[in-house]
Amino acid sequence: MTEMISGGHLVAKALKAEGVDVIYTLCGGHIIDIYDGCVDEGIEVIDVRHEQVAAHAADGYSRITGKPGCAVVTAGPGTTDAVTGVANAFRAESPMLLIGGQGALSQHKMGSLQDLPHVDMMTPITKFAATVPSTERVADLVSMAFRECYHGAPGPSFLEIPRDVLDAKVPLDKARIPANYRASTKQAGDPEAIERLADLLAHSEKPCILLGSQVWTCRATDAAIDFVRALNVPAYMNGSGRGTLPPGDPHHFQLSRRYAFTEADLIIIVGTPFDFRMGYGKRLSPAATVVQIDLDYRTVGKNRDVDLGIVGDAGAILTAATQAASGRIQNAAAKRKEWIEELRTVETQAYTKRLPRQHSDAQPIDPYRLVHEINEFLTEDSIYIGDGGDIVTFSGQVVQPKSPGHWMDPGPLGTLGVGVAFAMAAKQARPDKEVVALFGDGAFSLTGWDFETMVRFDLPFIGVIGNNSSMNQIRYGQAAKYGQDRGRIGNTLGDVRYDEFAKLLGGHGEEVRDPGQIAPALQRARESGKPSLINVWVDPEVYAPGTMNQTMYK
């Protein structure tokens, strides 16, 4: 007797072949056959309360595991709710697959329930978007979508599967189920370009390197560490590249970056575009030699000329450059001692200047004190997640992850509401890790109901809300642009007791008004073994320097 298989079961087989062990979803009639297939394939189904969270969780799962994440949502509003999560993954270069339901092909253009042109909507914010035309092609299209996620810099793909295609059964031997369809993407760059980089390093007296998110995407931590240590190059880190070097490492720098970009004679940018975070490249000294390394050819030299561009895998390129430069670098590397000492002096001055704020006993609490206490609380096994505007801008100056891959933020789309989803994915994928998330009260409000999902699936994490009852990053800009009398329009929130909200949903909650109680509250949350929210009342009249320097208001 011929063995038959449904479209939903073919989806599950294709996910299993890719190594996906969990999907994030919100149920809908269009997609339930996928759940049935996941049960048979041993794939966990985590159901959330909002599709945006499902998409953000798939993004977060990818960042933590190095494997593509997967979210499954129903048609129409289910898919449109997930658009923000897909867009965030697109700008952050996270490989994930969103599967959306669709009305039956037999009802095409007839006005079926929740019918929308999903593929047209998703095409601009994905690397691949398609409709599955027949049940026999389901697994084939899933594998194709995953493969496209890794073309150049990684990113998301989208598939819509019509309901009759998903529910139909076909002979198993008629369905294509790819098993080996991925190739290595670790391109080592043009050998001549590597030689030129080695020569630049040999002659540079004041080099520096910025290790961006692609260092973690490429799992290039060891190669980056070998590079900076063997060649004696001071390193700065941003995005997911944070934690590549541990705090206290002699080549780890953070607060002197602007000075270094002004004074360096050689600046190497790895896996970071010249976007708004880099002042579109204008923050780099025009006199410096600039080298840009990136997975995506289109990113190299965009917004700013470069002296040398190398396209490929960060780890492979840095390893090759280290090997090529090692034989000719000894004298130059030794001479860099003075340059590194110069940067360390600038670094120490900046740290010392801010230290009184980090130890402030002021009430309401100075945000610098809050992020200082969080930084002191983190261990080598703590994954830190930032979800917010002004309060997370404070943390970017102070919080230093102790290990690679232990920093998560939205990325350049600046999406608020990623925190609970990222915490969910991080704890589910790495239950051995502690997860610490800092939220702005506005950010938490967007997707906070999925705190209940964390409780339901027993995914403990330590959540901290820097509560100033405001969307303070926007408030600052409004007051600066229109005057204090109009600084409270459309940006003021209620004085919400998020600690009580946590307890209502079955988690651990505490309120903190005294800065001396932050550390004990963090410890109690850790010991509770539950999803937790510590509601910390911070001063609404204090703004992060990054907020006050935002170019959008100038």
What order do the helices and strands come in, and which of them pair?
Elements: E1 4-6, H1 7-18, E2 22-25, H2 32-41, E3 44-47, H3 51-65, E4 69-73, H4 77-81, H5 83-92, E5 96-102, H6 118-122, E6 128-131, H7 138-148, E7 156-162, H8 163-167, E8 169-171, H9 191-203, E9 207-211, H10 213-217, H11 221-231, E10 235-237, H12 257-263, E11 266-270, E12 289-294, E13 308-311, H13 314-326, H14 330-335, H15 337-358, H16 367-377, E14 382-387, H17 390-398, E15 407-408, H18 419-429, E16 434-440, H19 441-447, H20 451-456, E17 462-467, H21 472-482, H22 498-504, E18 508-512, H23 518-528, E19 532-537, H24 545-548
Parallel strand pairs: 2-3, 2-4, 4-5, 5-7, 6-7, 9-10, 9-11, 11-12, 12-13, 14-15, 14-16, 16-17, 17-19, 18-19
Antiparallel strand pairs: 1-8
Helix pairs in contact: 1-2, 1-7, 3-5, 3-18, 9-13, 11-13, 16-17, 16-23
Domain Thiamine pyrophosphate enzyme TPP-binding: 387-536
Keywords: Metal-binding, Thiamine pyrophosphate
Domain Thiamine pyrophosphate enzyme central: 194-320
